[in-house]
Amino acid sequence: MPKSPRRRPLTSPHDALFQWTFSQREHAMGLLKAALPQPVVAAVRWSSLRIEKGSFVDRALRSRHSDLVLSARMGAGRIYFYTIVEHQRDVEALMVFRMGLYMMRLWERITRDKPGLTELPPIMPVLIHHSDTGWTAATAFQDIIAASGPARAALLPHIPCFELRLVDVSGGRAGDVVEEALTALGKVALWCLSVSGDDARLEREIGRIAAALDEVLAAPSGLAAFEALLRYLMATHERLNVQKIGKILEKAVGPRAQEAIVTELDEIERRGERRGRAQGRAQGRAQTLLELLTARFGTLPAEVSTRILAADEATLVAWTARVLTAPTPEDLLGDEGPRAAPTRTRRPPARKRARRT
Questions:
Q1: Is 239 in the same domain as 323?
Q2: Are residues 179 and 287 located together in one domain of the fold?
């Protein structure tokens, strides 16, 4: 059963939802079957599909692009699927060039791991895109090369030639996607990406995924999936609170799914209350500890105050227990507690050697 998504601030909610959904083989298989040309779909041995480790996206661009590499048997070798989800307001004109860089990095790793290769395995580049305008840039690498007239025809044989497989979910579009191949969770995840930030469309078009959402909630991992979807919708629809989003989803599904949604919303609310109480206790302990330290040492360094205010309740309890014995505020915060002054052990006097006469 898939684990619940990790509870951390979502600096990139699109990345979190995409990775959580399509890092599961069943849903990745559905996405690829839906997006790829039929001759490729027919040639791949899907039972051999696996998720490859590693990312090739530049660190500075990871807030805008998230990649997922998969591979499967095809013929006597393997085919690789290099999939990127791109979610930004504007279309990146040279995205096909960037995709080419990532593909080269993947081939470089493959040849490094298998130095005896005499042929390279195929890589299918898949771009899942969402923007305000929809995709407007080139999808073929050769189309971004600045050359024209007779010279262009002469140059083309010497220029890399490949084309992105585009899945454009902007404005509800899905490009060439064969929706029947997607799993229910895959459909819902792509739809959530497509309505990101548009509250009116979220409420107006929820009926499009009603059946798929019912199926997601009926699955053994339904509550974990629902929590991942809900966290994404909350992060990308900031004007709507969790109860409002829950009500929108409730209206679209059947009675059994409604019950599951209500149960999960109640659990989320209870967890929030528990976290609130724990945070309140921690804040109280932190203020008490700061007052005790200030009374003993005077004005505290800013980094000491910052660490105390950010600490959890258990850590604050441990620090408070040694507030009277720590020689400095910094020693109190040390992982090993205050250290006693080292005692010097006197070495026994060395025996004098008798002088030889």
A1: no
A2: no
Residue with tokens 């989320």: 268
Burial class (CB in 10 A: 0-12, 13-18, 19+), 18: buried
Maximal C-alpha separation, the chain: 109
H or E stretch at 83 = strand 77-87
Location of structure tokens 């997006």: 35
In a 10 Å sphere around its CB, with 0-12 CB exposed, 13-18 middle and 19+ buried, how is residue 55 labelled?
middle
Average pLDDT, the chain: 82
Q: For residues 249 and 268, what is the distance between their CA atoms, to the nearest angstrom?
A: 15
Radius of gyration of the chain (CA): 29
- For 246, residues 6+ apart whose C-beta sits below 8 A from its C-beta are 230, 261, 262, 265
Locate the DSSP E strands across 107-152: 123-130
The SS3 call for residue 63 is coil
CA 236 to CA 12: how far, in whole Å? 10
Q: What is the pTM of this model?
A: 0.70
Tell me whether residue 154 is exposed, middle or buried, using C-beta atoms within 10 angstroms of its C-beta: 0 to 12, 13 to 18, 19 or more: exposed
**Percent of the chain with pLDDT strictly greater than 70:** 82
Backbone angles phi, psi at 308, to 5 degrees: -65, -45
Angle between helices 13-22 and 222-236 (to 10 degrees): 160
Of the pLDDT bands very low, low, confident and very high (cuts 50, 70, 90), residue 179 is confident
Residues 200, 246 within the same domain: yes
State how many domains the chain has. Answer: 2
Residue 104, token pair as written in the block:
């080269």
Residue 276 domain-assigned (yes or no): no
- Identify the band that residue 273 occupies on the pLDDT scale cut at 50, 70 and 90: low
Q: Does the pLDDT value for residue 88 go beyond 90? A: no
- Per the structure, the complete domain to which residue 285 belongs is given by 281-330
Residue 97 near residue 140 (C-beta atoms within 8 A):
no
